[in-house]
Every structure is written in C-alpha cells, then in structure tokens.
Amino acid sequence: MAIPKSVMASGYIRRMFRAGTNESRELIKQIEWTKYLCGVRGVRWHPSGSWRVQFKRRCYEHNYFVNCSCYFRVGQWGFDRAKEMAIGYRRRLEYEWAEVQEAWKVIDHERETARLKKREARRVAELEAQELMDHDGDADGLLIGGEE
Fold this sequence. Notes:
Pfam family, one: AP2
Main location: nucleus
Mean pLDDT: 87
Number of helices: 5
Protein name: AP2/ERF domain-containing protein
Distance between the termini: 107 Å
Number of strands: 3
GO molecular function: DNA binding; DNA-binding transcription factor activity
Largest sheet: 3 strands, antiparallel
Subcellular location: Nucleus
Shape: rod-shaped
Helix content: 55-70%
Low-confidence stretches: none
Strand order of the largest sheet: 1-2-3
C-alpha cells in the first residue's frame, strides 16, 4: 500500500499509523489512499485538506520568472471537484507558459532579423566609404602625377 508523503504530514493520520491499535489498523484499511495521489506533475494533496498546484518557471534571458502556488480547498469545492480544478489550473499555467515561449520566439526572430539588417547596412556603408576613399586617393594621385 503506497501512502503519499503529503498525507503523512497530517498529524491525525500520522498518529493513526503510529498508534498500532486494532481500531487504527481497521481504519487504515478502509481508506482509499490512491485517491490522494495525482498523476499530474505539480499537483498534490496538501495536509491542510486541499489540493495544491505548484508551478515554477524561469527565463533568465527575458528576465521573466513565474512562481505560482495555489490551493483548492476540499471544504469549499469538494474532494473530486477541487482535484479537477487543480489539474485544470496546472494545465492552464503550462499552456500559458508555452504561449509566452512562442511569443518570445517571434520577438527574438524579429530582433535578430533587425540586428542582421543593421549589421549589413553598416557593412555596406563601410564598403562604400572605403571605395570612396580609394577613388578620391586615385584622383589626387593622377593630378599630382600630371603636374610633374
């Protein structure tokens, strides 16, 4: 029987396990522990009697940080509804993070394109200036040579 660690954080459940009495053993057998497990990453049962959503992402390149922790209380929403809402919220956060990354790809591509255009314009201007300098130098040389 796999018991979630977060469930063991509840004092009354921990006492029930440590008591070792016949009554506590019978109660432990009656509880469906798999209900307290969630297959979605970042969603877990919290000892306060709620489902907790944790979402943490960092993007140092864009100086963008997300740290979200949200509780869906069983007392307010009911056990199954709170779990569904927690899973839905976690998926929404993941979807919005993916949207932001796609937007950053577009912005980064536009920024890189503008940078390359500017670099090419600068290179062309330098070549034209060099060509103009070379051309002026040749003309001066011819005049000087013709005077001698």
